Amino acid sequence: MFVLGNFINAVATIIDIALNLYIWAFIISALLSWVNPDPYNPIVRFLYNITEPVLARVRRLIPLQFGGIDLTPMIVILAIIFLQNFLVPTLRQMAMALS
């Protein structure tokens, strides 16, 4: 059973790293929206492609635009932090129980 415990621990670590990278993608995307970057830049297109589908869904559910300021990235970042503080420790505790 220790193999399954190690596997779950590795999955928890990968999820934690991926969620951290996703938070940074949202932060960078929000900062880039302030300066109006070149839309044909590959990095800008990549950030737009990975963040905009999530932001569009949240905007449909909860329209949070006050005076031209979009607060949707903040809601998404808070949801990701919740996942990091709930899902990752839960997986690690499951891994410890199986080891």
- Which word captures the global form? elongated
**How would a crystallographer describe the biggest sheet?**
2 strands, antiparallel
Helix content: over 70%
Number of distinct helices: 3
Mean pLDDT: 92
Order of helices and strands: HHEEH
The percent range for strand residues is: under 5%
Radius of gyration, in angstroms, nearest whole number: 17 Å
Query: Ends: how far apart?
Result: 6 Å
State the strand order across the main sheet.
1-2
Q: Care to count the β-strands?
A: 2
Structural classification: mainly alpha
The count of domains is: 1
Unreliable residue runs: none
Describe the structure.
- With 99 residues, the chain is mainly alpha-helical.
- The protein has one domain.
- It is built from three helices and two strands; from the N terminus they run ααββα.
- The chain has helices at 2-35, 42-61, 72-98, and strands at residues 65-66, 69-70.
- The protein has a two-stranded antiparallel sheet.
- Strand 1 (65-66) and strand 2 (69-70) form a beta hairpin.
- Helix 1 (2-35) runs antiparallel to helix 3 and helix 2 packs across helix 3 (72-98).
- It is elongated, with a radius of gyration of 17 Å.
- The protein starts with a helix and ends with a helix.
